[in-house]
Amino acid sequence: MTSLLAPRPHPRTALFAATLVAATLAASPAQAQLANCTVLAGTNCREVIPDGGILQGVSFSGTLTSTLTVPAGTCGAVTSLVDVNLQVRLKHNWVGDLRLRLVHPNGTTAAIALQNPGGAPAGISGEDLDATFNDEGPSLSISSTIPTISGTVKPVGSFSVFDGLPRAGTWTLEVVDSRGGNYGALEDWTLELPCTLPTVSIAATVPNAVEQPVTSGQFTITRTGGDTAVPLFVPFTLSGSATPGADFTSFPLFVTLPPGVTTATIDVLPLVDADFDNGENVFVTLGAGDYTLGNAVAGVFIWESPDLVGQSERAIPTSSSLGLALLALVVAAAGAGLIASRRLLG
Ligand SMILES: [Ca+2]
Ligand SMILES: [Ca+2]
Ligand SMILES: [Ca+2]
Ligand SMILES: [Ca+2]
Q1: Which helix (H) or strand (E) holds 22?
Q2: Of the ligands numbered here, which is closest to the C-alpha atom of 163?
């Protein structure tokens, strides 16, 4: 992490620009790898982002604007936005130089997706970005690998400002490089504009996992209805008596359903430990997202062995419960003796 805050300038030289542009232009056509419900034709995709700098003591920024036209009628009778997510892929050897801003076709409604990550003045020195900005995504995290920003991330400014506005028209992405010396290119970008939102539910499709021999449990997350042509990010939280990384193998706290895919599974792989914690449990609770919540909670139970499946922990004798039972016996015996002696005395 801290290595990302290295002092400028970045070791990459002007040679980088030439090789980057050559590689960029030789690659497959823009957006060929991006699928969504509205296949958009953009301008200035695969284009160098002008570098910022200082001229006669005055700082200036370089700005690349790229547009995408969303045709009318792509969602039938639905003409208003119910959700906006932004996918961007760019090469840049100092991502901290960058600001990304998405502008609605009305020209006045806009939201900042990324604002000089790492803060002023130098920002983070990590390279490249391949991410989807989604209000429901996790806060921005920086990786020491390339791309330094990836996956689904929350934009700086909420994209909910677009909700209810017309879908169709020419959208603009502004890519601003505010500092001189490091530079890059916009590879491609697209918008996820679902026509309608689905319902998302979770179920424990294999509710019983076993520690020995190891048998996984399984959750299944399903979307029904809505626009399945767009990817769907579903975050969730964990609870229950089982500990991730100790009682079962940890997994990311989200799934992303690719376009056209309606289900995702999460395996609960038990880890063998010396504890007799039979019947420990893992509950998954779905978080809010670009959907209506159906069944939001499900649980998987982890058992010591197949023959113990379904037995509660209390039904199994343990050293501590055995000790308590003996103590109860002693107390009962002592009580009985007391009553007996009183009777004798009486
Ligand atoms: Ca969203
Ligand atoms: Ca720069
Ligand atoms: Ca355990
Ligand atoms: Ca165990």
Answers
A1: helix 14-26
A2: 1
For residue 30, report the distance from its CA to the centre of ligand 2, in Å: 23
Using the Cα atoms of residue 329, residue 334, residue 338 and residue 340 in order, give the sign of their dihedral. Answer: positive
Collapse the DSSP code of 192 into the 3-class scheme (helix H, G, I; strand E, B; otherwise coil) and give the result. strand
Name the closest ligand to CA 235.
1
Distance 187 CA to ligand 2 centre (A): 16
- Asked if 194 and 228 touch (Cβ cutoff 8 Å), the reply is no
Q: Supply the DSSP symbol for 288.
A: -
Cα of 264 from ligand 4 centre, angstroms: 28
Q: Which pTM was predicted?
A: 0.75
Mean pLDDT of 318-339: 43
Residue 38: is its pLDDT beyond 70? no
Ligand nearest to the CA of 241: 3
18 CA → ligand 2 middle, Å:
15
Backbone angles phi, psi at 55, to 5 degrees: -125, 120
CA-closest candidate to residue 38, choices 169, 130, 152, 200: 169
CATH number of 2-192: 2.60.120.260
Q: Torsion angle, CA of 147/152/157/158, rounded to 10 degrees?
A: 170
Q: How far away, in angstroms, is 302 Cα from ligand 4 center?
A: 9
Closest CA to 81 of 52, 51, 46, 111: 111
**pLDDT tens-digit profile of 231-247?**
899 999 999 999 999 99
One-letter amino acid at 35 equals: A
Q: How far is the CA of 273 from the centre of ligand 3 (A)?
A: 5
Ligand 2 centroid to residue 85 C-alpha, Å: 26
Q: Could you read off the pLDDT of 46-78 as tens digits, one per residue?
A: 788 999 988 888 888 999 999 998 888 888 899
pLDDT bin (cut points 50, 70, 90) of residue 42 is low
Q: CA 179 to CA 37: how far, in whole Å?
A: 36
Question: How many residues appear in the chain?
Answer: 346
Domain boundaries in the chain?
2-192, 199-315
Q: Which residues surround ligand 2, an ion (CB under 5 A)?
A: 51, 97, 177, 179, 182
Domain at 199-315: CATH architecture:
Sandwich (2.60)
